[in-house]
Design a protein that fits this description.
Layout lengths: L2 H7 L4 H7 L12 E9 L7 E10 L2 E6 L2 E2 L2 E7 L1 E9 L6 E7 L2 E9 L5 E4 L4
Antiparallel strand pairs: 1-5, 1-7, 2-3, 2-4, 2-6, 6-9, 7-8
């Protein structure tokens, strides 16, 4: 008997099989949003260097990820809520700007800054 035929005979076990195999097949996945953080950094004469992080929530758990690099970059991820984004230019010269998207809509757009001032986005009322 083929695997497909066995699964059809045991269709009532399919949700449990998918959940055990790591598939997030519960209602919490419906609450996930698509996020994209785009960093636009100057590239001449030397690409700007920056450091930072972003904090987001998945299934009630806060996760912090690195946002360091040079020049321009883009990071995409899914989360329940984006809490914070912080970026600081670390090179002596150059500018960097951030645009944050939630489900394709701009939710934060920071103008270019230099090493004197960090960019900070908070979504926790502060």
């Amino acid at each position: 008997m083929s695997i497909a035929a066995r699964l059809l005979r045991a269709w009532w076990l399919l949700p449990a099989v998918l959940l055990v195999s790591g598939c997030a097949c519960d209602n919490s996945t419906a609450k996930l949003r698509d996020y994209q953080i785009v960093v636009i950094g100057s590239s001449t004469p030397v690409p700007v260097r920056y450091t930072g992080s972003y904090t987001f929530v998945v299934n009630g758990e806060e996760r912090v990820r690195d946002l360091s690099g040079t020049g321009s970059s883009s990071i995409s991820f899914q989360g329940g809520e984006l809490k914070r984004v912080r970026l600081q230019v670390s090179s002596d010269a150059g500018l960097a700007a951030i645009t944050v998207y939630e489900n394709g809509r701009v939710i934060f757009d920071a103008p270019p800054v230099d090493a004197q001032k960090p960019i900070l986005f908070t979504n926790d009322g502060s």
